Amino acid sequence: MNSTENPTTPNVFIIAGEASGDALGANLMKALIKKTGGKINFHGVLGEKMLKAGAKAGVTSIFPMSDLSVMGLTEVLPKLPTIMGRIKQTVQEIVQTKPDVIVTIDAPDFSFRVAKKIKKLNPNIPIVHYVAPSVWAWRPGRAKKISRFIDHLLCLLPFEPKYFTDVGLDATFVGHPVIESKIGGGDGEDFRKRHSISEFAPLLMVLPGSRAGEISRLLPVFSETLAKLKNSYPQIEAAVVTLSTTHEKVSRAAKDWPVKTIVVGEREKADAFAASDVALAASGTVALELAMAELPSVIAYKMAPLTAFFAKRLIKARFANIVNLVLDRPAVPELLLENCNSDMLATEISKLFDSQNARTSQRKAYSDAMVMLGSGIISPGNRSADVVLDIIEKNKHRI
């Protein structure tokens, strides 16, 4: 804790482990700051957006969030010593600072290990976890297990709380953060002018993911897909939006792509979405951003072979895309694992380029899913902040 902090203000220890968690954490921090009139302190493992959200309060991260941004067995194992060291460091920081609440955001492999240790060392500190584990997809027994060291769960999907309240863990549906993004308000015409893209050129938005491993596996497939699409659409161009951490890697790869490709940062994301006709995206949160932007898309994903071997045997969910999960039907094409190949991707993308009915059908599905995810109600950041502040207040009276 900073020596200048006011001991009467709430102290929140917050942990994020990847880009999507960073965005969730930033919105939560902004809401907490507003609701407390700025009388709140933050400490923990924070990403760029969270650091920016708390900049006026002088927040710092105890180590770079990027140390935790890994996924899959083959990616985690080489970094395991570093991750174990960061767990120990985080636990020590929490024990020393004694926060009023701990908020862990996604990254369960890291977050839950920290939570278990803290519950043994200081069970009086309430622990809130943001983003429910997908127990509806695989390992349903996890719901009961995490109820032993998590005090409250903030859920993004409307059907999730019941899986946890049934085993005695308080859970609240707060809505999906994509509904408070401004991704749907871009200027597509200006984007095309800035980057010298003809108004008549078919433009494919390409979103290869945020993790180094998934990007490495998807970029070659996406390049092959573009080569096949060029045969049918000679004027086709591509626009790629990257994070600052992946921009250089993606830019190097895109130089060899068979079509003219524009690589831009997140600042131009909304404009790029508005300018594009169809999207090819890695499975993940970005699929919901595409829904908000009403951009017809095809979802793709490949895993490292060993990770894929276990995933196929353990995952029980019918779909990977949240839009499809919420609607419980295949509204958006998903090409995963062995189906993630250039022939199948090019075929599905062509259907969207060629058919107005296909594009309209997908946009209608997007609209239905957004309503189910909380669009039109109080923002997820504000709902989450209300839960956190209520837990802090109740805990003060309990101790």
How do the strands and helices of this protein lay out in sequence?
Elements: E1 11-16, H1 19-35, E2 41-45, H2 48-53, H3 73-97, E3 101-105, H4 108-121, E4 127-130, H5 142-146, E5 152-155, H6 161-165, E6 170-173, H7 188-194, E7 203-207, H8 212-232, E8 237-241, H9 247-254, E9 261-264, H10 269-275, E10 278-282, H11 286-292, E11 297-301, H12 305-314, H13 322-327, E12 334-336, H14 342-354, H15 356-372, H16 380-398
Task: Describe the structure in your own words.
With about 400 residues, the protein is of the alpha/beta class. It has two domains: about 10-175 and about 375-399, Glycogen Phosphorylase B (Rossmann fold, 3-Layer(aba) Sandwich); about 185-370, Glycogen Phosphorylase B (Rossmann fold, 3-Layer(aba) Sandwich). Helix content is about 45%, strand content about 15%. It has helices spanning about 20-35, 50-55, 75-95, 110-120, 140-145, 160-165, 190-195, 210-230, 245-255, 270-275, 285-290, 305-315, 320-325, 340-355, 355-370, 380-399, and strands at about 10-15, 40-45, 100-105, 125-130, 150-155, 170-175, 205, 235-240, 260-265, 280, 295-300, 335. A six-stranded parallel beta sheet has the order 2-1-3-4-5-6, sandwiched between helices. Strands 9-8-7-10-11-12 form a six-stranded parallel beta sheet, with helices on both faces. Mean pLDDT is about 90; it is low at about 1-5.
Summarize the structure.
Helices cover 47% and strands 14% of the residues. Helix 3 (73-97) runs parallel beside helix 4 (108-121) and helix 8 (212-232) packs across helix 14. The chain contains 16 helices and 12 strands.
